[in-house]
């Protein structure tokens, strides 16, 4: 006879195990200590007898136990062993728990961080972007279960906010995380690879910078800047070398050979992760010697005010330009545009200019061409001629 709630409740534990049968293999086993557990006896697809636990009573009610029995018998009708099916589900759940997007992203980040140069913002930037825009939505989902449409929604949130550059970087980070997951056998498909066609195209705007006609005004404003001699020299050197502001801020005296007029920036501090030689015109050498009298006792050219082991703030050069009246017109990185445009108008070869900017040439040319153009009559002569042109404005200030 099928079990009833009354029969279950009135059955008391005895000195031996008591078994109450509900039919079709379902049993309630009552132990001498009073515990009650559901068991299902069945025949495996291979013909062998087996038993599986369906949980404890009353946590699993009679009705729920019968539902589990029905589910198990459905599997058996398909030739599937319910115990093996349950074990497989547990394995998949454990696999999914270990392979959520958050877990894979953190593993990717730990793998990539040592490859990124120590002074780069990329490690912090990537993790901050993921924590702010991805983890709250799909961070705890199995990486293989996140649909392309969900990624599209995440990226479009940034589009709607007008944060196109941030969207581009986040798209790149997430795409690389999927590549890492595929390589390590935790994913089979990269849903971010083909999303570009569904996103709005955005043409990256160049950094604000003055025109060649406005260059004398900028030069004279820098020469007259009296708030910080150190910052004034830094702004001059940006125009004399065309290096990136971050490369300038973190420059160390040990990198400079003033005798031979060259600044050798190590690969770990370069955006392209390759060492860069910067020819120093005589005017730059003079500025560096004057700066050395101020900061030569420190390792950094531009030590911070409160901690000399760290460089000045990344806003120092920009704030100085704002004080000079160039807010929205020119930023520190814009000096690279000014130098590149000026050198082009002076007729210097494109390869020399790109090398000075530490740019990789496009296509196959960039793959096979690694010339630094540091012969005396190449980049050094080019930058000396540029400095002479520039200092016509400095000396007239």
Protein model, in words:
Strands 1-2-3-4 form a 4-stranded antiparallel beta sheet, with helices on one face. A 3-stranded antiparallel beta sheet has the order 5-6-7. β3 and β4 (49-56) form a beta hairpin. The longest helix is centred in the middle third of the chain and has 20 residues, at 164-183. The protein has helices spanning 5-10, 62-77, 82-98, 101-112, 122-133, 135-138, 148-160, 164-183, 215-223, 229-241, 245-249, 282-295, 316-323, 334-345, 350-356, 363-368, 379-395, and strands spanning 18-23, 26-30, 36-43, 49-56, 256-257, 262-265, 276-279. The chain contains 17 helices and 7 strands. The N and C termini lie far apart (107 Å). GO terms for molecular function: DNA binding. Residues 205-383 form the Tyr recombinase domain. Pfam families: Arm-DNA-bind_3, Phage_int_M, Phage_integrase. Belongs to the 'phage' integrase family.
Terminal residue distance: 107 Å
Number of helices: 17
Mean pLDDT: 88
CATH superfamily name of the largest domain? Intergrase catalytic core
What is the CATH architecture term of the largest domain? Orthogonal Bundle
Number of strands: 7
| Helicity range | 40-55%
> Pairing-aware structural class of the strands and helices?
alpha+beta
Strand order of the largest sheet: 1-2-3-4
Largest sheet: 4 strands, antiparallel
């Amino acid at each position: 006879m099928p079990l009833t709630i009354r029969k279950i409740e009135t059955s008391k534990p005895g000195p031996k195990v008591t078994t109450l049968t509900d039919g079709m293999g379902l049993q309630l086993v009552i132990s001498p200590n009073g515990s009650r557990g559901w068991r299902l006896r069945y025949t495996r697809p291979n013909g062998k007898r087996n038993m599986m636990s369906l949980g404890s009573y009353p946590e699993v009610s009679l009705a729920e136990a019968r539902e589990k029995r029905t589910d198990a018998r459905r599997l058996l009708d398909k030739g599937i062993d319910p115990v093996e099916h349950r074990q497989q589900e547990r394995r998949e759940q454990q696999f999914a728990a270990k392979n959520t997007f958050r877990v894979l992203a953190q593993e990717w980040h730990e793998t990539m961080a040592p490859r990124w140069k120590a002074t780069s913002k990329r490690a912090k930037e990537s993790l901050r972007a993921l924590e702010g825009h991805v983890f709250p939505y799909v961070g705890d989902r199995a990486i293989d279960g996140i649909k392309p449409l969900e990624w599209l929604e995440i990226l479009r949130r940034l589009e709607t906010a007008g944060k196109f550059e941030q969207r581009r970087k986040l798209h790149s980070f997430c795409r690389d995380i999927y590549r890492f997951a595929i390589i390590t056998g935790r994913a089979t498909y990269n849903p971010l690879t083909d999303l570009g066609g569904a996103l709005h195209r955005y043409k990256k705007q160049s950094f604000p910078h003055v025109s060649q006609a406005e260059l004398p005004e900028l030069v004279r404003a820098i020469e007259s800047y009296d708030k910080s001699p150190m910052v004034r020299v830094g702004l001059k050197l940006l125009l004399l070398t065309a290096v990136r502001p971050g490369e300038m801020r973190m420059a160390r005296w040990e990198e400079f050979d003033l005798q031979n007029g060259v600044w050798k920036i190590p690969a770990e501090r370069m955006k392209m992760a390759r060492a860069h030689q910067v020819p120093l015109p005589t005017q730059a050498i003079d500025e560096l010697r004057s700066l050395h009298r101020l900061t030569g006792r420190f390792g950094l050219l531009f030590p911070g005010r409160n901690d000399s082991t760290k460089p000045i703030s990344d806003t120092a050069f920009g704030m100085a330009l704002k004080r000079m009246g160039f807010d929205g017109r020119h930023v520190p990185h814009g000096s690279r545009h000014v130098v590149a445009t000026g050198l082009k108008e002076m007729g210097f070869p494109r390869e020399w200019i790109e090398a000075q900017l530490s740019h990789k040439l496009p296509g196959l040319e960039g793959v096979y061409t690694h010339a630094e153009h540091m012969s005396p009559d190449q980049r050094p002569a080019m930058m000396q001629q540029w400095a002479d042109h520039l200092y016509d404005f400095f000396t007239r200030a």
